[in-house]
Design a protein that fits this description.
Layout: H1 17-20, H2 26-39, E1 45-46, H3 58-69, H4 82-96, E2 105-108, H5 110-122, E3 128-133, H6 137-145, E4 149-154, H7 165-175, E5 179-183, H8 195-208, E6 211-215, E7 238-242, E8 255-258, H9 261-274, H10 280-289, H11 293-317, E9 321-322, E10 330-334, H12 342-353, E11 355-356, E12 358-359, E13 371-375, H13 380-394
Parallel strand pairs: 1-11, 3-4, 3-5, 5-6, 6-7
Antiparallel strand pairs: 2-8, 7-8, 9-10, 10-13, 12-13
C-alpha cells in the first residue's frame, strides 16, 4: 500500500527577517496613543509629528480641483510630468543660482520613495551607509529593510549636532562605508549645516569615494541661518526633497530627486516597476505650489513665532536644555535632569498633561533615552496651550 506523503507542517506565523529588522516609528505610536485619548473626549496638544497645521496653498487646491473636474487622472511618465520637472529645475536656478537640467529631476511619491529609489540604485546588499545619530528613524529602517547596513554617524552637541568631515573619516576607517546621508535642516535637532561645513563634507565624501545623499526636505524653513543645496559643492550629489513640509502637502505624497545623468536611467527603471508614476493629481498640485510664495512665507513666519515662543518659555518649565533649532520645526530637549527613560516620560506627559511629544529613542538608540522632540508645526494657540499645560505639570 502506497503511503501518502506527509503533510508539511504549517510554517510559524513569523514575518520576514527584513520586516523584523524594521523598528517601530515611535512618533506614530505616540500619535495613536494621543488619538485614543481624544476618542475618550480628553484634549491633546499634538507636538509628536512633523505635520504642518496649515492647509496646502490655495493655488495647489484650485489646480487639483480643476484637474479632478476633467475626470481624467492618468499615469504620467515614471520620471514625472515634464512641466513639473522643468519647474523644479527652475527652482534651483531661482533659489540657489545652481543650474540643473530637467532631465536629472525625478518626481517621487514623497521623499520616502526617493530614498528607496536612491538606496536601491546606488548600493548592493550589505553596503554600509553613514546616517546621522540623532537622525530621522526611517533612514535606518529603510536601509535595514533593503539589506543595507546603517552606520551611525554620531553627532555631538559641541558640533551643534552637525556632521563633520573628521567624524566621517573616522567612521569610514572603522566601518568601510559606501555612502553618506546628511540632512539640513535636520530632524530632530533643527540644525542647519553651515555652507563651509557642507562643502567640506562633500569634499570629504568625494575623497573617500562615498556616494553623497542630501536630504533637503526642510529647505525653506530656516530662521536666520543660510541653507545651501549640496549641488553647489558636488554636482554628483543625490538630493532628495519634498512638498510635504515647506508647502504643507504631507498627505499629497509628492516629492522629487535630483540625480546625476548616469543614474537617471537606473532610477527610471526602478520607478517604472515599483511605482509606475507619482500620483497625477499631486503632480498637478505641486506644479502650482511654486507660485504660492506669500502663503508659504506666512506659514514660515508662523513657525518662527512658535519657535521664539517655545525657546523663551522652555527654560522656565524645567524641561532641560533645548538646541536652538536653526531650521525645520522641532525643539530637541535634553531632559536628563528629569529622566533617563524618555518613552515613559512621554507617556506620563501625555497621560497627565495632555501634551504629545516624541521620545528621543526614535532618533538615537544610544543617547535618546534622555531626549524628547517637540514639534512646533502646529498653530500658535497650540504652542501657548502646550506651555500652559507643561507649566503646571512640570512643577
Amino acid at each position: 500500500m502506497t503511503q501518502s506523503p506527509p503533510t508539511p507542517e504549517r510554517p510559524p506565523n513569523l514575518s520576514s527577517r527584513r520586516a523584523a529588522r524594521v523598528a517601530p516609528f515611535l512618533a506614530m505610536d505616540v500619535m495613536s496613543s494621543a488619538a485614543a485619548r481624544e476618542a475618550r473626549g480628553e484634549g491633546v496638544v499634538h507636538m509628536e509629528v512633523g505635520q504642518p497645521s496649515a492647509p496646502a496653498p490655495r493655488a495647489v487646491i484650485a489646480a487639483a480641483q480643476a484637474a479632478l473636474a476633467t475626470g481624467s487622472l492618468p499615469y504620467t511618465q515614471a520620471l514625472g510630468m515634464s512641466a513639473l520637472r522643468e519647474r523644479i529645475a527652475r527652482h534651483y536656478a531661482e533659489t540657489y543660482g545652481v543650474t540643473v537640467s530637467p532631465s536629472r529631476i525625478v518626481v517621487t511619491t514623497g521623499s520616502s520613495a526617493g530614498f528607496v529609489l536612491a538606496f536601491l540604485a546606488l548600493f548592493d546588499a550589505g553596503a554600509r551607509i553613514a546616517v546621522p545619530q540623532p537622525g530621522y528613524p526611517a533612514y535606518r529602517s529603510l536601509l535595514n529593510a533593503l539589506d543595507l547596513v546603517p552606520a551611525p554617524l554620531t553627532l555631538r552637541d559641541a558640533d551643534r549636532f552637525a556632521p563633520t568631515g573628521d567624524a566621517l573619516r573616522a567612521l569610514h576607517a572603522r566601518e568601510s562605508l559606501a555612502g553618506l546621508l546628511v540632512m539640513s535642516p535636520a530632524n530632530p535637532s533643527g540644525t542647519v549645516i553651515e555652507p563651509a561645513r557642507l562643502e567640506d563634507l562633500c569634499a570629504t565624501a568625494r575623497q573617500l569615494g562615498l556616494r553623497f545623499i542630501s536630504d533637503e526636505i526642510y529647505h525653506g524653513l530656516a530662521y536666520g541661518m543660510p541653507t545651501e543645496t549640496a549641488l553647489r559643492y558636488d554636482d554628483e550629489a543625490i538630493v532628495i526633497n519634498s512638498f510635504s513640509k515647506t508647502w504643507c502637502m504631507t498627505g499629497w505624497r509628492i516629492g522629487w530627486m535630483v540625480v546625476p545623468d548616469w543614474l537617471v536611467r537606473p532610477v527610471e527603471r526602478l520607478a517604472q516597476n515599483l511605482y509606475i508614476s507619482a500620483p497625477y493629481l499631486s503632480q498637478v498640485g505641486a506644479l502650482a505650489a511654486f507660485d504660492a510664495v506669500e502663503e508659504v512665507e506666512a506659514v514660515r513666519a508662523g513657525y518662527a513665532a512658535n519657535r521664539a515662543l517655545l525657546l523663551d518659555a522652555f527654560p522656565g518649565l524645567g524641561l532641560g536644555r533645548t538646541h536652538p533649532a536653526d531650521g525645520a520645526f522641532y525643539l530637541y530637549a535634553d531632559v536628563s535632569n528629569l529622566t533617563d527613560d524618555a518613552s515613559a516620560f512621554c507617556r506620563r506627559m501625555l497621560d497627565e498633561a495632555g501634551v504629545a511629544a516624541t521620545p528621543g529613542l526614535d532618533f538615537d538608540a544610544v543617547e535618546g533615552g534622555h531626549h524628547v522632540r517637540f514639534s512646533f508645526a502646529g498653530s500658535q494657540a497650540d504652542c501657548v496651550d502646550a506651555v500652559r499645560r507643561l507649566k503646571g505639570w512640570s512643577r
